[in-house]
Amino acid sequence: MKNNYFKDRSSINTLPLQALKDKLKGRVVLLGVGNRIRGDDAAGPELIEILKKRLPDAGKEIFLFDGEEMPENYLLPIANLKPNLVIIVDAVDFGSRPGTVKLFPIRQIPQGSLSTHRLSLRFLGSYLEKETEAKIYLLGIQPKSIKLEEKLSPEVKKALRDLADFFQKDTFKNE
Questions:
Q1: pLDDT over 90 for what percent of the chain?
Q2: φ, ψ (nearest 5 deg) of residue 54
Q3: How many domains is the chain partitioned into structurally?
Q4: Per-residue exposure over 29-66, b if at least 16 CB sit within 10 Å of its own CB, e if not
Q5: pLDDT tens digits along 115-136
Q6: Cα dihedral 133→138→139→143 (10° resolution)
Q7: Candidate from 97-111, 123-137, 145-159 with smallest mean pLDDT
Q8: Can you point out the beta strands (E) in 1-130?
Q9: 85 DSSP β-pair partners
Q10: What is the mean pLDDT of residues 30-47?
């Protein structure tokens, strides 16, 4: 999501990533969103791809969806899972260094925010919140570039490795 809204809004409350550790219980959905041919905009789908390789048991209590540019196609399957937590992963321009990761409660996302996706992430999150009563967060990764035909930047690649490590280690132990 390329959006300058976040750059000048100190009222947007972000949460430390560690805040997720306590919330990763029960049924957890990660929904990667982004365009694979637009450089760092591919961050969401790329994280899902990495996690699918690292978490072969995903699908019991952890569900990974690669929504690419049309995450709305996954609204019904996600709602039917009745998750406790949904994390939407996307490239978000919040005016920080490339590769910086921030966690936003979905209600902090402006209703009409610009996006490279057909439906706003706030709308998607609000729908899922209403249908599932799950906690919904946007995990934003600051892109370096989202130009066509570019590859992921080294900064975003490192952030994705770090996030995959975070989710893989002790985080997804739902026993």
A1: 46
A2: -85, -25
A3: 1
A4: bbbbbbbeebbbbbbbbbbbbbbeeebeebeebbbbbb
A5: 445 557 888 888 899 999 999 9
A6: 160
A7: 97-111
A8: 28-33, 62-68, 85-91, 101-105
A9: 28, 135
A10: 94
* Predicted model pTM: 0.85
Q: Which two tokens stand for residue 19?
A: 């805040």
Residue whose tokens read 């919140």: 129
Is residue 2 within 8 A of residue 113, CB to CB? The reply is: no
For residue 141, count other CB atoms closer than 10 A to its CB: 27
Reported as a single tens digit per residue, the pLDDT across 20-34 is 777 788 899 999 999
- Element housing 139 (H / E): strand 135-141
* φ/ψ of residue 67, rounded to 5: -80, -10
Categorise residue 67: left if φ over 0, alpha if ψ from -120 to 50, beta otherwise.
alpha
**C-alpha pair distances (Å), 71 with each of 27, 58, 76, 140:** 19, 19, 10, 15
Query: Is 60 exceeded by the pLDDT of residue 8?
Result: no
| Full domain range(s) for residue 38 | 4-171
CA distance linking residue 128 with residue 79, whole number of Å: 6
* Averaged pLDDT for residues 2-27: 60
